[in-house]
Amino acid sequence: MNSTAADVVRLLTVRGETLAVAESLTGGLVAAEVTAVPGASKVFRGSVTAYATELKHRLIGVDATLLEQHGPVNPQVAAEMAVGVRKALGSDWGIATTGVAGPERQDGHPVGTVFVAVNGPFDQGSGSAGGGKVEALRLNGDRAEIRMESVRSVLALLLTELASEHSGNERTQDTEQNGGF
């Protein structure tokens, strides 16, 4: 079991908050990691695996023009996926993965191009990803390795946000918070 997933479930439980997941390239692996943790049912609302591009719009509200102009492998798409799944499933936190696991390039993006995003209660009221976080990754390895590293990365990003929110809403710069992962 992933210790990051266990830490995420523990922190969400302590805070009385919930999580929803939007996945593309990871195809349900993030949800599987979270639900493998005993007690996850207290915090995990559900997930949407929007593998097909049009489902990102239809099921979780990613802007259709954004998808049409930039394709699904885009930082704003990841941000909107996190916001959209959070709204659609009524959770405190939303996380998302989108990218290219391979074996071939997609829409001009090389294999290993991945975006992970988190959107949480600190964004309440704005209804946007303005206060959310998106991390751009350039991952190496085969398809399975890229997908598993994407899972690890999105859970680590969420854990960082949970920990910083837990310590009084003081969030450090992205380079500092993500440097140790």
Give an overview of the whole structure.
The protein is α/β, with parallel strands linked by helices. The chain has a single domain, classed as CinA-like (Maf protein). The protein has helices spanning 3-15, 29-35, 53-60, 64-70, 75-89, 143-166, 174-178; strands spanning 19-23, 44-49, 93-99, 113-119, 133-138. It has a 5-stranded mixed β-sheet with strand order 2-1-3-4-5, with helices on both faces. α2 links the parallel β1 and β2 (44-49). α1 packs parallel to α6 (143-166). The longest helix is centred in the last third of the chain and has 24 residues, at 143-166. It is globular. The two termini are 18 Å apart. Residues 123-130 and 168-181 have low confidence and may be disordered.
Low-confidence sequence ranges: 123-130, 168-181
Counting DSSP H or I runs of 4 or more residues, the number of helices is 7
In percent, how helical is the residue content?
Answer: 40-55%
Overall shape: it is globular
Class by SSE composition: alpha/beta
Quote the beta fraction.
15-25%
Query: In CATH, what is the class?
Result: Alpha Beta
CATH architecture descriptor text = Alpha-Beta Complex
Note the gap between the termini. 18 Å
* Main sheet: strands, sense, barrel: 5 strands, mixed
Radius of gyration: 15 Å
CATH superfamily: CinA-like
Average pLDDT, all residues: 88
What string, H for helix and E for strand, traces the elements in order? HEHEHHHEEEHH
Number of strands: 5
**Strand arrangement in the largest pleated sheet:** 2-1-3-4-5
Number of self-contained structural domains: 1
